[in-house]
Amino acid sequence: MFFQQAFRFFVLLSAAAALCLSTVARADDRATLERTSQAALNSLIAQNASANALSKHAVAMLVFPDVKKAGLIVGGQFGEGVLWRDGKATAYYNTGGASYGFQAGVQEYGYAMFFMTESALKALDATQGFEVGVGPSIVVVDQGKGVTHTTTTLQDDIYAFVFNQKGLMAGIGIQGNKITKITK
């Protein structure tokens, strides 16, 4: 009886995850993606002093306004974003990843990467997809750590902010994430 209920729960959650990710897979049009990305960036800069400071010194900012993540033992995530340079949309990317381990749930979030050097920005397009965790150093800035940064202590290549988290995703496991340039 327990295994039947567990199997039904697994099938139901897998179906929900597939539905969630399939709606993400349909790409927004270029104008909609630019509008939501710019709105997310403006909101982040207005609400976070570290993001505001970084935006004034960044070479470029890559903003994924809506990433969806779902999983039960095996999980996945997907979202599309815009690279902003000098206030203009200059390129489009998707982010995707897979994970495996003790995990369950569905979550939505946005994230922004502030590229502080030209070399870090070049690494984004240097290979067939930028693998997070490989290449330039990336610092994920949280609220507690962010308030201690000043322009003299910001010495890393890339700073990342996660924002607008909704839903619940819990667990531990192995995760990979890749950012790939796309044509819009």
Keywords:
single chain, 184 residues, alpha+beta, 5-stranded mixed β-sheet, 5 strands, 34% helix, globular, disordered N terminus
Q: What features would you describe in this structure?
A:
The chain starts with a helix and ends with a strand. Residues 2-26, 133-137 and 143-154 have low confidence and may be disordered. It has one domain (2-182). α2 (30-47) packs across α3. Strands 1, 2, 3, 4 and 5 form a five-stranded mixed beta sheet that branches. The protein has helices spanning 2-25, 30-47, 49-55, 118-126, 143-146, and strands at residues 60-85, 88-115, 130-131, 138-140, 158-182. The protein contains five helices and five strands. It has 184 residues and is of the alpha+beta class. Helix content is 34%, strand content 46%.
Structure, briefly:
The protein has 184 residues and is of the alpha+beta class.
Number of helices: 5
Main sheet attributes: strand count, strand direction, barrel closure = 5 strands, mixed
* Counted beta strands: 5
Strand content: over 45%
What is the string of helix and strand elements?
HHHEEHEEHE
Structural class by secondary-structure content: alpha+beta
Topology:
Elements: H1 2-25, H2 30-47, H3 49-55, E1 60-85, E2 88-115, H4 118-126, E3 130-131, E4 138-140, H5 143-146, E5 158-182
Parallel strand pairs: 4-5
Antiparallel strand pairs: 1-2, 2-5, 3-5
Helix pairs in contact: 2-3
